[in-house]
């Protein structure tokens, strides 16, 4: 934990604006009691929204030929709307299904037949046999369904609440959208937590001053995570269960965050833009967590692509011999994985792969062993202090190789690279660079709000997360829920935040930006100098 905290503290100063004094650096079953619904009503909601139920398949029967298909292909919400308001579908106008309409006499918008009020028995007959409350046939475009009596009871119980206040996702009202963030308010990382909180507050306050979104103002609730895994789970649980927030934004994510993210998945609560050194996703990404920046694996892949297109020595041939030195922890192993996968694609030879216990690097003997291997480049993944020791030893031993790492990983230690080694040392940098991107909105808002840029890297990510949340709430429409928000996020394409690469999500993509600049360092001015445009790691042949 001490090693992790030191990295977090180092990165505070690793992102900056040179010109202004900165240094650059399958949806699960719905949760119980959501929004005030009973367990039975929640089961009915699942049937209404997805055509699926626990305890047996639901079958939709279509047309005069009685074609049978899975109910999941024809859920009620597709035609009648998420809130039962009725929609237009293929030139037809399916009627509303809110109970106040169903339980009153009316006229079918499709057949123009008058009908009596529905009760549970007549509604069951309509759903299963296609016969309305007055004994007439429903429009032939309306499927009827096979389901158990228990499933029917669940569905009707939910229809009695459909569109009412208990059916509204938590954190939504006609006046406000309540969002939460889990941050280290106390403990060794409290300054980072405070800085991120101020950045989020500043952005939402500005949106609220402009009238909010569709008349709703944003309310931010902060829960203290203490900056560790256990505290993050507790803070996330409080925000979801006690404070009943609609979504989370900009939460601080420690190295191990699987439990907190699994909680969000179980409760179907989206988290946009976790503030983290490197996202660590499972093989199947959590559908409710939307990261903004690439992890160390993708940053390393971009570095490999960069040196593959660059002459290794005066002979003009591309680099083919590489070595990797890494600390024995999960983040650095992620970086190693990225190097190895991309090196295979470019037919590079890894002549040395050397790990060491985190915090216990012995640079001198390690460098001596590398000299024998004659690598063109050495990838180093460890702490800032360990990088400095490695760079100094490489320079001292006259190891004729370039040195590569992640600027996010080592922070200001990049500026400790000896001058003779700096010319052939390169670093991946996933955020935005002042001379390449436009920070004006972010910097202007922080200045206007009186927020000090003490943790610019983290504050920029939080700003981008809040901006993306507001944008996707706008595109979700006036009447929306968490499902609409996730759909809007999945449709986001090349969205400019001003502080990150353009962000794109998709149904199977939960990391918004997968590119990185490659930079070197000006050791005298202590600035990063870009040597490439953004590099999206090349994908291997499938």
What's the gist of this structure?
By secondary structure, the chain is α/β, with parallel strands linked by helices. Helix content is 36%, strand content 14%. The strands form four sheets. The protein has a seven-stranded mixed beta sheet with strand order 12-11-13-14-15-16-17, with helices on both faces. Strands 7-6-8-9-10 form a five-stranded parallel beta sheet, sandwiched between helices. A three-stranded antiparallel beta sheet has the order 2-1-5.
Describe the structure in your own words.
Helices cover 36% and strands 14% of the residues. With 542 residues, it is an alpha/beta fold. It has 3 domains: 38-160, Cytochrome Bc1 Complex, Chain D, domain 2, CATH 1.10.760; 170-293 and 437-511, Rossmann fold; 296-429 and 518-530, Rossmann fold (3-Layer(aba) Sandwich). It has a 7-stranded mixed sheet, sandwiched between helices. A 5-stranded parallel sheet has the order 7-6-8-9-10, sandwiched between helices.
- Overall mean pLDDT stands at 86
Shape: elongated
Task: Provide the CATH top-level class of the largest domain.
Answer: Alpha Beta
Low-confidence stretches: 1-34
Rounded to an integer in angstroms, the radius of gyration calculated over CA atoms is 28 Å
Query: Please, how many helices?
Result: 18
Report helical residue fraction. 25-40%
Which strand-content bin applies to the residues? 5-15%
The separation of the N and C termini measures 38 Å
Overall number of structural domains: 3
Count of beta strands: 17
CATH architecture of the largest domain: 3-Layer(aba) Sandwich
Helix-strand makeup class: alpha/beta
Largest sheet data? 7 strands, mixed
